[in-house]
């Protein structure tokens, strides 16, 4: 079976999913990272977002039952609200 990895970067965490061709999730990993709020109405993310994404991807590849050669794509999403 072939898979795609979906990476969803949200405000305070990253969620990584291994999804098959039918849209079924076979494995998921979530890692939190800090949200910096220096004053009311201000929010930013630090570099921890990148490190946590790499950690989640490594964990997914190591622990999922799918074979890494069956992964055919990688999709990133980052929904910004304004």
Low-confidence stretches: none
Distance between the termini: 39 Å
Q: Main β-sheet, in a few words?
A: 4 strands, mixed
Relative helix content: 10-25%
Q: Which structural class best describes the helix and strand composition?
A: alpha+beta
Number of helices: 1
Write the element-wise H/E pattern from the N-terminal end onward. Answer: EEEEEHE
Within the largest sheet, what's the order of strands? 3-2-1-6
Mean pLDDT: 86
Strand content: 35-45%
Give me the Rg, rounded.
14 Å
- Assembly category: single chain
User: What is the 3D form?
Assistant: elongated
Quick one: how many beta strands? 6
Description:
The chain is of the alpha+beta class and 82 residues long. Helix content is 20%, strand content 43%. It has one helix and six strands. It has one helix at residues 48-63, and strands spanning 3-9, 13-20, 25-32, 35-36, 44-45, 71-78. It has a four-stranded mixed β-sheet, with helices on one face. Strand 4 (35-36) and strand 5 form a beta hairpin.
């Amino acid at each position: 079976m072939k898979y795609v990895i979906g990476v969803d970067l949200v405000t305070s965490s990253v969620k990584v999913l291994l999804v098959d061709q039918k849209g079924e999730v076979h494995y998921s990993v979530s890692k939190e990272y800090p949200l910096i709020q220096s004053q009311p109405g201000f929010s930013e993310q630090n570099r921890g977002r990148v490190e946590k994404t790499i950690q989640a991807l490594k964990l997914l590849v190591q622990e999922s039952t799918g074979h890494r050669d069956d992964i055919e794509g990688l999709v990133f999403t980052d929904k910004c609200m304004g």
